C-alpha cells in the first residue's frame, strides 16, 4: 500500500491535471475565433467547435457521458494493496473536484486518468494509454472528433467581450494574456508530469523493495526446507542412536540386576555373621557389667564407711569450734571495754593537742598585730 506521502503526491498531480484541463468559454472564443462575437448571448448554440484535448492524449480514447469515476488514480500490486484517490479526498478540498474552481463551469472539465499496474517479478509493465473523461453534460455521446456542446456564456463575460470589441488592441491583449496563461499551464503541466514521474519512480522503488523482500523470503524458505531435511536425517540418526542406547541400557540393566542379586546374597551372609558376633559381644558385655556391678557395690560400701567416719570427725570438730566461739563471746565484753578506754584516751590526747595549737596561733596573731601597730606609728612620725 502507498504511503501517505505518495498518496498526497499522486493527489496533487491529479488535481493539477484537472485544473489545467478545465476550459473556459472565453478561452474557446479567443483560441478558435479571430475576433469575439459581441452579439453572443447566454443560451446561444454557437459555441467552440471542440473541447481542447490534453497534450499527448488520444482524442479517440475519450469517454463521453456517465457518472464521474470514483477512482482517479490507482495502481494494483500483487499484494492487493491498491491505493485509491477519490475526488472528495484530493480534489474538492483543493478547489477542484466535480464542481470545478470558482468562476469555471463544471461541465468544461475533463481528466486524464493514468492506470499503472506493478507486479512482483523483475519487470514492470508500462503505463496504459491515458483515457480522457468528459462529464455527462456533454450528452448524446459524440463520436471521436465531434464538436462539444456549447456552454452558456455568463452576462458579465458577454459584456466584457462587447467592451473588448469596442476598445482597440483588446484582442492583442487577450492573445498576450492567453499566451501567458498557456505558458503557465505548460509549466504546471511539466510540474505535474515531473511529480507523476517521481511518483512512478517511488512506486518502482517500492516494488523493487517488495521484490527483494520476496526473494529474501524465498531464500529463507529454501534454507528452512534444507534445514528441515537435515533435521529429518538428524532425527532418523538420533532414533537409531536412541535404539542402540536403549539396547545397551537394557543389557547394562540385566547385568546390574545379576550383580545386585549377588550383592543381596552377600549382604544376607554378612548380616548373619554380624548377628552372631553381636550375640557374643552382648554376652561378654553382660558378664563385664556383672563384674563391674560387684566391684561398684564393694566400692560403695567402703565409701559409706569412709563417709561415716568423716561425718563423725566433722561433728567433733564442729563441737570444738562451738566451744571456742562461746569462750570468745564470754570474753568479748571485757575486750570491748578495753578498746573503748583506749579510744577515749586517744581522744583526750587529740583534744589537748588541738588546744595547744590554737593557743600558739592566737599568740602569733597578737604579736603580728602589735608589730604592725608599731610600724604604723613610726611611719607617721617620719612624715613631715
TrEMBL record:
Residues 27-37, 326-339 have a biased composition (Basic and acidic residues). The keyword Phosphoprotein does not apply. Residues 136-154 have a biased composition (Low complexity). It comes from Phytophthora lilii. This is Unnamed protein product. Residues 24-68, 81-101, 136-157, 310-339, 351-384 are annotated as: Disordered. Residues 189-273 form a coiled coil. Keywords: Coiled coil.
